[in-house]
Known about the structure:
Elements lengths: L1 E3 H11 L4 E5 L5 H8 L4 E4 L13 H12 L3 E5 L3 H4 L2 H9 L4 E7 L15 H5 L5 E4 L6 H13 L5 E7 H5 L1 E3 L19 H13 L3 E5 L1 H5 L3 H11 L3 E3 L14 E4 L6 H9 L2 E5 L5 H4 L10 E6 L13 E4 L2 H11 L5 H20 L12 H11 L5 E4 L3 H9 L8 E2 L10 H11 L5 E6 L10 H6 L5 E6 L4 H10 L15 H7 L3 E5 L5 H10 L4 E6 L23
Helix pairs in contact: 1-2, 1-7, 3-18, 9-14, 11-14, 12-15, 16-17, 16-22
Amino acid sequence: xxxxxxxxxxxxxxKEGVDTIFGYPGGAVLTIYDAxxxxxxxxxxxxxxxxxxxxxxxYAxxxxxYARASGKPGVVVVTSGPGxxxxxxxxxxxAMDSSPLVVFTGQVNTPLIGxxxxxxADIVGITRPCTKNNYLVKDVKDLARIIREAFYLVRTGxxxxxxxxxxxxxxxxxxxxxxxxxxxxxxxxxxxxxHPRQIKRCLEMLATAERPVLYIGGGVILSGAxxxxxxxxxxxxxxxxxxxxxxxxxxGSHRLSLxxxxxxxxxxxxxxxxxxxxxxxxGARFDDRVxxxxxxxxxxxxxxxxxxxxxxxxxxxxxxxxxxxDAKHVLQQLxxxxxxxxxxxxxxxxxWLQRIAxxxxxxPLSYRSGKMIKPQAVVEALCRATKGEAIITxxxxxxxxxxxxxxxxxxxxxxxxxxxxxxxxxxxxxxxxAQAAFxxxxxxxxxxxxxxxxxxxxxxTAVQHKLPVKVAILNNxxxxxxxxxxxxxxxxxxxxxRMDFSxxxxxxxxxxxxxxxxxxRPEEVEPVxxxxxxxxxxxxxxxxVEPEEDVSPMVPAGEAINKxxxx
Length: 567
């Protein structure tokens, strides 16, 4: 059967199980949009394409949020030139955080490529460093195969974004169409099972370790390995610490949970990692925000690193025992033969847990109450009001760290945030994507007054598509994390970090057709949250908080993670 490129595009998406796409039309994708008009796909029209996670962030990252919350690939359609280049920061964010995302960009007609035609950009060249793969479609006969390969790539191995650039004439041309049933990519063979010899060596170390720690990252969530992590931790009585991206991979309320480690990690997690004798890293990258001073990270421990991406192993921290494989598969291999701790080892581990409990009691997460609203108190109140069951997105900065420390995440895919790239403006479009994936769930974006303004126009998207996201702005009148660094390391010189002017967020919400609420005093926090959660549509909650509240603990850049500043 003959079909046009645009019709092949639609048919391939349907066959890949796609039901929702995010986009913004333009001249180079009008043929595709005409096909969308005649399709059953749910299209969410955003207000700006740019990076989906940066200034005036748009649909690309909304799709990224959709992918993270549901586990499905997010799909984005944009036009050529500026439409395509506006997606770059969102693509880079997805690449850093291993988010499955397929981005379709329009391109000028094939004969015009390279001639600086109107709205032409070499988006394939631009995105080569931040995609898992990308394609320029030169023949309509290749389109179905390329789309099939793209979805295969984002779903296998370490997930990541793939971009497909489709010239305008390719969209209109016709060809005989058969949907490819199989994908064959030479040289691409992800390893899922761990090597038996390495599994055996890991088990031998596990049998004798007296002070072990499981250190888990976002790969645990992406692989669906949370149940196996819990089984291993409980069977072996091992405490578990999580990266920012790993929060929810192990229940935060569990007796063995240490919470987050690293630059703003808990006091007890950082000390436990520093003093452990066996550190098993699973689906984590050993990145600089976690390790601090590399040669002082877990200095007493034998280190095991389990990851599906072999290039991530020993990239930052040299490990003793690498295991390349999918986290879920490798953990199942370990669980099949995991020994029960011998009496003396079990006794030593109990002492280890008691020691950690003493650290927790000695330096708990805390803050001083006062006449003004404390941002930590807002996050705690949101957790209580939602019974810890909401999907939470964040912007980037202090709001992100307070969320990580004071909202208790007990489920995978419950926290959606920009980790590796640290992209301001991420939270609102990501919340829109998550709400599109789960219309019946409560979705809250915890934001700062600086970061939210980088993508505030997407509130119109939420209102138009009746996506009842709630936004909690921790409004301190500063670029809070920048101000904190300036206070601690630059002599308190607040160089251009004060937000001297901001809009009235309540009126702004109302102008977009949403509901605006404000709390200025501590006693107003819970009533505002309760009202927001009862409101059917999108809501902005403006919490006017203590302007110079700091995130604590904090590890100065370049220091070991046990050298924490406790404020």
